[in-house]
Design goal:
Length: 347
């Protein structure tokens, strides 16, 4: 099938609501509550240079309160992970594009859970928004105990190739590149919070990556686009684990559960085959289990073997290098010795 003509992502035409009234913490002062959640949303279309406008809404953690950022926590799996963590007293950093859903979750946390929350809106189809999200979190927090790279899309209903604002294939950017950049930006907070954890929510649907056609210009299919982005997330976790060895920051990837009852599945008209609560528990385990290690790939609860390409250090290294170039992030250093080339543990 010939590649579709390049065209912008439809998501870029959506209004991007932000909250100019929410304040950030003044230097040196930490407070439990920031501006109350205003129920009337102020929305405007995202202009170029949106970045400076991304601000958190909600509370900030108490000193020493465990703090976890979950991308894509306005719905589906991410929302369930955030709910559970908040019920356990954790401060959760909620992220998504949909302000109504973010606000509802924040209100639920305030009303019913022991923890606290704060939300940020950023569309991962824009690397500028990812970058400024990272900068906003760096401004508001001094440490992180966990980062769950969960936000994702699967454009299951269509074989149209869609590009991000940055001209990258949309699955590759939203599912992988955005998390690559955000992780890079937030590493100082994760190092400060060590022992801390990075969890990349991948999938058992994996497809080998053609490094010479990362954006699938030559041959596009939604399975290749989604599966390639998910394998890239796994390689990213493997590389992070190597690079962060000895720092107290660990990185793992997982397939959370198959065909869960989330929007991604329901909107594609698929019949769910598992509960989002199974996926939630699998993610929570990677955040909580003291014996989980680093550099692993898990099929729900079990250590598993990812697609063979993930174990090729040359491919991983090239992927990290090109990701750094595409995002403007610092490159994840390539492994320097043979002992650093093989992630652990795998079946
Ligand atoms: N569902 C499954 O069976 C399954 C199986 C294996 C792996 N997974 C993985 O699990 C993760 C969560 O999936 P899910 O099933 O929970 O999906 P979901 O219900 O569709 O939720 C996706 C989340 O990602 C956010 N998101 C989507 N596009 C975004 C963008 N351009 N910028 C920023 N945020 C964006 C959404 O925010 P908005 O509210 O703003 O839309 C939402 O919070 C994904 O990485 C997926 O690949 C799912």
């Amino acid at each position: 099938m010939p590649p579709s003509p390049l065209r912008p992502s439809s998501s870029l035409r959506r209004p991007f609501p932000q909250r100019p009234f929410s304040r950030t913490r003044p230097p040196g002062r930490r407070r439990r509550r920031s501006a109350p959640v205003l129920l009337l949303g102020l929305a405007w279309t995202v202009p170029a240079g949106i970045g400076a406008q991304i601000q958190g809404v909600g509370d900030l953690p108490e000193p020493g309160q465990r703090t976890v950022l979950i991308t894509g926590s306005t719905g589906g799996l991410g929302r369930e992970v955030a709910r559970s963590l908040a019920a356990d007293g954790v401060h959760v950093i909620i992220h998504g594009r949909n302000e109504e859903r973010a606000r509802e979750l924040l209100e639920e946390i305030r009303a019913t859970h022991a923890g606290s929350g704060r939300y940020y809106l950023a569309d991962f189809a824009s690397l500028e928004q990812v970058r400024v999200l990272g900068e906003a979190v760096l401004r508001d927090y001094d440490r992180l105990d966990g980062l769950v790279n969960n936000a994702g899309i699967a454009r299951l209903g269509t074989q149209d190739r869609v590009l991000s604002e940055n001209g990258h294939e949309l699955h590759f950017q939203v599912n992988y590149l955005a998390g690559y950049l955000l992780t890079d930006l937030l590493l100082p907070l994760l190092r400060e919070g060590a022992p801390s954890r990075i969890v990349n929510v991948a999938s058992r649907t994996q497809a080998p990556i053609d490094l010479d056609d990362l954006m699938l210009e030559a041959a596009y299919s939604v399975r290749q686009a989604y599966g390639g982005s998910k394998l890239a997330q796994i390689m990213h976790a493997f590389e992070l684990a190597e690079v962060l060895r000895g720092t107290g920051v660990t990185a793992n990837a997982l397939h959370p559960s198959g065909v869960m009852d989330t929007d991604m599945i329901l909107e594609a008209g698929l019949q769910p085959q598992s509960s989002v609560l199974t996926g939630r528990n699998a993610v929570l385990r990677l955040l909580d289990d003291p014996d989980i290690g680093s550099g692993g790939y898990f099929h729900v609860f079990e250590p598993a073997r990812a697609h063979e390409q993930a174990y090729d250090p040359e491919v991983r290294s090239r992927l990290m290098a090109v990701s750094a170039t595409l995002t403007g992030a610092a490159p994840v250093p390539s492994p320097a010795s043979p002992s650093r080339t093989r992630p652990t543990p795998s079946r």
